[in-house]
Amino acid sequence: AILEARLCPAALASDIPSLLLAFWLRFSGQSQKHLISSSNSSSSSNSSNSTSTSLSSSSTSKSNSSHSSQSPVSSASAALLSVRDLLTWVSFINTATPVLGPRLAYVHGAYLTLLDGVGLGGSLTPAAVMTLKTDMHGFLKSQLPREMERQVELAAGKVDIIPEMQEEGLLPSQSPDGHWGIPPFFVLKRDSGKAGARGVKSGGLADEKGVEAVEEKGVEVVEKSVEVVEKGVEAVEGDFGPNVNSSPNANPNPNNPNNPNPQPSDPFALGAPTTARNAFRILRAMQLRKAVLLEGSPGVGKTSLIAALARHCGVELVRINLSEQTDMMDLLGADLPTPGGAPGQFSWSNGPLLSALLSGHWVLLDELNLASQSVLEGLNALLDHRAEVFIPELGRSFKTAPGFRLFAAQNPIMEGGGRKGLPKSFLNRFSRVAVELLADQDIKFIARTLYPQVEERLLDRMVATLEA
Prior knowledge:
This protein is α/β, with parallel strands linked by helices. It starts with a helix and ends with a helix. Strand 1 (179-182) and strand 2 (185-188) form a beta hairpin. It has helices at 2-6, 9-12, 16-27, 29-39, 44-53, 58-67, 83-100, 102-113, 126-143, 149-155, 162-167, 216-234, 273-285, 302-312, 328-332, 352-359, 373-383, 424-427, 440-450, 456-467, and strands at 179-182, 185-188, 291-295, 317-321, 333-337, 346-350, 362-366, 388-391, 396-399, 405-410, 430-434.
């Protein structure tokens, strides 16, 4: 009933409902619990047979029979696919079907909704996460025709096949006018010269049209945050080409780490393979209006990656570091002494989050799992369909301006430092992306791009020393 009510007509007319149902029966909480109980009983083969007969299409029956002998990864994955995840998946299919077609939208939606964030914020071990992702990837491949195998590999993040697929006409060789991205996912660019704060006045409130009235010192805080982020972008600028509309023949494979002459102007010049995969997954997550949560070990480039994407899209990025001491007043604003005013005179000053959402900037909330419960609860209305914040001191709500996007980043719980596991109900409000660690070839490519005057042999020795 959910699929019939939510799926677009083009997806309903295809085999997408049966494919979704098969995936749901295998990886939803109910089926995982059923598999766990049946694996401990002597009648496991009968249970798997009854599961396979419940599927309506021949392709889904084949998939179930090929995987029926596999045991569940862990009881921690029992509630892997929730109804909210399914609705997000359906929403992505509806959004992407006009461009990708129903089946490709289905595959990319599976990675966006589930595989890109498997184990994120949870208790699964890395080995269990890898086993579960392999199982899901294999199940998706078994559902689709063999001729779509490369498309499934691209959905898994194998971006080095993009130039080959472009030559065959399977992917666009240029981005659409006014857009930037990695095929087949693009985001709208903005004129960076118009990305600043609008209608700034001294004191007061934002009017009904969303034009800010920000106290001058509050503006300085935002501008300093943006300045810090822009300086951080310079360190990774070599990984990103400023012109994705350049000739596709300039370099047949700019993502190849063995390319001896990496050019910043190459199309999709993400250079380092791992960086390219991470960017590809983030761009896919940005096809929906949901906030995007990145999780990865310290130093993998979560903040720098979002900063570089913002620069390419001509958008101002406001980075806000969270901690246990952060409260909503730090984010939204407070009554502060009026500059130049009489003693005891106060006026409202917008916080960096309120200023950014009214201006349509991008916001990165860093160290999300260090935030207090009050901050998490205060963000709920901003993360759901309301897309607004309520300020009790002012007695009113503020809607987000067009173009506003919210990103969050966090280190894994195992890093310690007071980090806590976030509730699944809160995590489900994000499109989740696990950011991969940089490998040796990534570090070599970045170093070679930033410092081409350094000898290759010396770079190899430096990277080897880091790994020692």
